[in-house]
Specification:
Layout (H helix, E strand, L loop, with lengths): L1 H12 L7 H8 L12 E6 L2 E9 L8 E7 L8 H16 L4 E6 L3 H10 L2 E11 L14 E4 L5 H12 L18 H6 L2 E8 L2 E11 L2 E9 L8 H15 L4 E7 L3 H9 L2 E12 L1
Parallel strand pairs: 3-4, 9-10
Antiparallel strand pairs: 1-2, 2-3, 4-11, 5-10, 5-11, 6-7, 7-8, 8-9
Length: 286
């Protein structure tokens, strides 16, 4: 039902939505119903027809901002549907957590941009969505010396350390009794469809990457190389090896997201055949 509405809105607006539906299905399918205490999905119906949807996504640690994205059926816009959904989301946000919330909108979505401007949210950052538009680049020796090791929960601290270096994710409380509390647990992420690999060279960790296959589309996320190992081709090798992993899993298309201001990563992805297909703007409410 949500997918059908999403397809209609994308077709009508020629823009991108970031609803993370497959990721959420993976989370919910492995959660005891009795343990669910939070509402993440808000839907508006006209009779039996879904005409509006807004969803909350939580990634990373407990202090990582919520991400919120939504849509309204083209024939029901300017009738207060999105406003009603947003008020429900705002109430849930204030009830649950003092952390900030990110509102997402494709830059090409006039309705989305107009709505966010009316909330008073301030610009936070933007990401390009990129798709691989060529076969895997045939660049010799790129994978030489690089191996992938699937991360386990024992690697949670290392993954958190790398995220702090690459993305400024320093949300975990160092004083917690559980040293892994608030960290991404690779084995739990794999149950939700996201597999994390540590890239190694000469048995030493040099970086990491997260890959996901959903609805035939492969996704590459969280890719990074540690500063002391940069300039040696490990970033390109890790990217190409991630592409190979997804192709082995029969991915039809392969996509990734990169911060607009990350010029080095953008050049790397472009050189390997990725092309920008949309720009997602993030606005922060505190």
């Amino acid at each position: 039902m949500i997918n059908r509405l999403q397809e209609r809105c994308i077709r009508e607006d020629q823009s991108t939505l970031k609803l993370e539906l497959d990721y959420k299905v993976g989370v919910y399918s492995r959660t005891d119903c009795a343990g669910i205490r939070q509402i993440n999905e808000f839907m508006y119906f006209d009779g039996h027809d879904l005409i509006g949807y807004m969803g909350i996504c939580e990634f990373g640690g407990p202090d990582t901002p919520f991400e919120v994205n939504g849509m309204v059926h083209p024939e029901y816009r300017r009738q207060g549907v999105f406003g009603t959904l947003s008020r429900l989301v705002m109430a849930e946000w204030k009830h649950r957590s003092p952390k900030s919330m990110l509102l997402l909108s494709d830059r090409k979505s006039e309705a989305g941009q107009t709505f966010i401007q009316g909330t008073g949210a301030s610009y936070h950052h933007s990401e390009y969505e990129m798709y691989l538009r060529v076969d895997r680049p045939e660049i010799h020796n790129d994978l030489e010396g690089i191996t992938f090791r699937k991360a386990t929960n024992a690697d949670a601290r290392e993954i958190h350390r790398q995220n702090a270096i690459y993305f400024g994710d320093e949300s975990r409380d160092e004083e917690t009794n559980d040293p892994r509390e608030g960290m991404i647990l690779p084995e739990e992420e794999e149950k939700r469809g996201m597999t994390i690999y540590l890239a190694e060279a000469e048995k030493q960790v040099v970086g990491k990457v997260h890959i996901q296959l959903s609805s035939g589309i492969g996704g590459i996320y969280g890719l990074g190389v540690l500063p002391e190992h940069r300039g040696k081709g490990f970033g390109r090798a890790t990217l190409l090896k991630a592409i190979d992993k997804l192709k082995e899993a029969s991915a039809g298309d392969i996509m990734l997201q990169v911060a607009v201001e990350n010029a080095n990563a953008l050049r790397l992805y472009q050189s390997c055949g990725f092309v920008e297909t949309s720009t997602m703007d993030y606005y922060e409410l505190k």
